[in-house]
Amino acid sequence: MNTHEPLDCMNCDRMALILPLLDDGELDPPTRAAALNHLRTCEHCQRERQRYTALDQALRERFGLSSVRPHTTETIMQHITNRSQSPEPDAPIPVPNGPRRFNHISRPWLSGLGAVAVVTVLLGTAALLFGGRLGFGPGAHGGPPRYTFPGTQGVFADVSMVSPTEGWALAQVTKTPDGKSASNTVTFYHYLNGTWTPVTVTLSAQATNALQTGGAAGFNGAISMDSATDGWAVASSFNRGSVLFHYTGGKWQEVKDAPSQTLGDIQALSPDSVWAYSGGLYAISGQPASLVHYDGKTWTKQTINGMTEPSRLVSLQMVSDSLGWAVFSPTGDFGKPDYIVAHYTGNNTWTTHSTINAGDLGAINGLAMVSPDEGWAFGDHPINGPSSITAGKPVPQALYHYSNGKWQTAPLNLNERVSFLTLEKIVMRSASDGWIIAQDQNQRPGITASGIQKRTILLHYDGNAWKQVETPETGGDASIITDMSFTGDTGWACGYIAALPDGKTIQDSDVPSYGSPMLWKYADGTWTLYQQK
Amino acid sequence: MRKRTGPDTFLSEDNFARLVDIHQHRLHVYLAGLIRQPEQAFDLVQETFFDAWQAACNAKPPFVPGTGEADVRRWLYRVATNNAISMLRRHRLIHWEPLDDHVELLPDTRVPFEDHLAESDILQAALSRLAPQDAACLLLRVVHGFSAREAGQILNMSPDNVNTRLARAKQRLRAAYEQRLTSQGEAPTFP
Prior knowledge:
The complex is a heterodimer.
Chain A: H1 12-22, H2 29-41, H3 43-62, H4 73-84, H5 108-111, E1 153-163, E2 166-175, E3 185-192, E4 195-202, H6 205-211, E5 219-225, E6 231-237, E7 241-248, E8 251-254, E9 263-270, E10 273-278, H7 282-285, E11 290-294, E12 299-302, E13 312-320, E14 323-329, E15 338-344, E16 350-357, E17 363-371, E18 374-380, H8 387-390, E19 397-403, E20 406-410, E21 412-413, E22 422-430, E23 433-440, E24 455-461, E25 466-469, E26 479-487, E27 490-498, E28 515-523, E29 526-529
Parallel strand pairs in A: 21-25
Antiparallel strand pairs in A: 1-2, 2-3, 3-4, 5-6, 6-7, 7-8, 9-10, 10-11, 11-12, 13-14, 14-15, 15-16, 17-18, 18-19, 19-20, 22-23, 23-24, 24-25, 26-27, 27-28, 28-29
Helix pairs in contact in A: 1-2, 1-3
Chain B: H1 13-35, H2 38-57, H3 69-90, H4 113-119, H5 122-128, H6 132-143, H7 148-155, H8 159-183
């Protein structure tokens, strides 16, 4: 550590910064020498040093080798064996990662561009150890699964419609109906005149590595079409990085000179105006929060007042070249309750619009502004207590409404008891038409699973209140919506359904291995399961 | 074991098992400190070695000839850290336990500060209040003996950043602890 100050100015204030590191042996020699010289005559700092020395020793004792019971190596090797094996003779390809989902917020309510823009935000999917026989709506539990693409295994990450008759969706397909599988592809589904058609893009070795499954992450993605002829997509693996794709000239191509290897979201307004960000979760990506803009030729980093390297950008909502929104945690630390809503007014200018206080220990996970005078945000508010109290308890969710110049909590109206609710996404089509994608999970006897094994719960806002709406039955077990996109009076939602084998012990991250990509269509005020003819 | 197709050139199954044997307990200790739940920490240990197994099967770095043991160790800690933070976020295990809930665990405040630290689970509670990356810096540097450079490689940050976070983490740990003692109506006693 180099303090970059004259060594002869060592005093107790400077020592306060140096003492925590004095025993670690990595201070530069002049600083260390000056510190030791100061210590010779300062009893206060001598006591301080003793405390840090004691702290180090206590940490080693409390968190040292004797702090946990050793397990056998054979246990781990057996786990590898189990994970390496296919769970069924006709088993899906193991996908060890649970999907991470992004929030997408459509913007036809302001843009008037016809196309749907999406705003994504990385979400934590709150859950403790539960499994669940899950359905999609009342009465779906345990029924035979109904598929959008029978025989296809995989998950949809995102969908972006450019018109009622055309759109694209981003998927990871782990097995096709003819039994083929490949780990070096990403699949785009093209909707045109009533039919979704898969378009497979083969990845480079570097991209394959970036998206390789493994760890506790999974396949994520964001896709944003600014027109029928131009669009962008980001596919990402939570642990390993992202891959950027550009649709132009009638085909999807991997972008080799992406502005970041850890992109979390992308939003295309036009071929000459594309926004993306990275560092949505600094602690995991290891990359600083960074917002970039593409002008058709180059990517340029943007500056938002108050957003620094460790900040955590959780939601971006670009409406036009003169209007946009972002919400971020300035410190990046969970538990710091103040989140800044930044307002883009064009010409690379961001101003602070407002601050959302998520409450003690709370976090903001999504934002959807309707106008500078009205908007919605959601987050969570973990229980304030020790593990003995919080373990297994749902994390209270919070919905915030911005009106009359301030953020206030707003109620959610559910029709049923939801054991473990998490708010995942908010989509505001107008000030009086919005959707929230939420999830629930239940326990399923005989299965050990956690986290993502859930059913989706939809809530609709009619201008007065948020109310739960009926969702179509799909049967099967986990049934998840990951995103939705609207154009005009119609819309599409994408996600996956998983039918879990009875009697198996699986982990939450295994659930997508049993998944099949799913689509739901919204028309005439009703969601219906889409089944490809 | 059955149907486990492992690396057959550079790293045999036996060698991989030895690798597990060398690192698994330390990784478990590290992850238990980070997420505070020993059983779930062991799940993460298994996930980490499964990741390693896959990487080894595909002959990906650091599981290639010529790689040093230190590189493999750092790789394991890096993947373990990522898995842990991912799980913390997904499962909302980051809930910053307030120290007030550990009143019954408080030590006798008339004994020196150093003694309190050694005997109290309040240290665990204080650690849980840190940002995960700060806690990781602390554990890697102080408990597991990684240099700032090595910790930086594991956490994908510069050595200076590691030291900054380390200093901050120690200051916060101390502050949280002393605040708790003071709230009991007695000033912390120090030598």
